[in-house]
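Ticket #4471: structure output looks truncated?

Reporter: J.K.
Steps to reproduce: submitted the chain below (192 residues) through the standard prediction queue, then opened the result file.
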Amino acid sequence: MRLVLLGAPGSGKGTQATRLREHLQVPHISTGDLLRAAVAAGTELGMKAKVVMASGNLVSDDIVLGMLEERLLKPDTANGFILDGYPRNLAQANALEKLLEKIRQPVDVAVQLDVNTDLLVERIAGRAKAEGRADDTPEAVRHRLNVYNESTAPVVDFYRNHGSLVHVDGVGGLDDVFNRIIAAISHTHDVG
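Returned output as attached by the reporter:
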């Protein structure tokens, strides 16, 4: 099962990806984790990323895609993978599709976790307060969510147009959301 998890910050992607990894027995690949690991390991791409991040800029799509390709060519992805946090825009979705075609591992399904904005603001603001961060005011969170929605809406449409998108209600208990995801992907593929 090759799965892309989509959803706004605070929608529960990371939590559900961890549960799906264990259920589906495929690796959970987070581009943020890949970047941190490559920088820590001092790989060629990691060193390029470190320079970019040190200057306060976003790491280019080319560097992230290179890291993804390296990761997706590892043997543990033979039975699939879960991508979390990527693609975030239409250019990344197109580049990812080309990469996956090249390595003959096309996406089976893209799961969009739907959570209303007010609940997302509440979740993120609560998380920020628990972590002692004052920068996540409700206004700042709403702005970030608007930016996210503007850049990610075309990605949702991309997977809808490819016939691989399923929407899942991301509100409720962890088990409830997990079971909805399993039911949704089971309709598209034979999942235990």
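Triage note (M.O.): checked the attachment and the full token line is present. DSSP finds eight helices and five strands in the chain.
Status: closed, working as intended.
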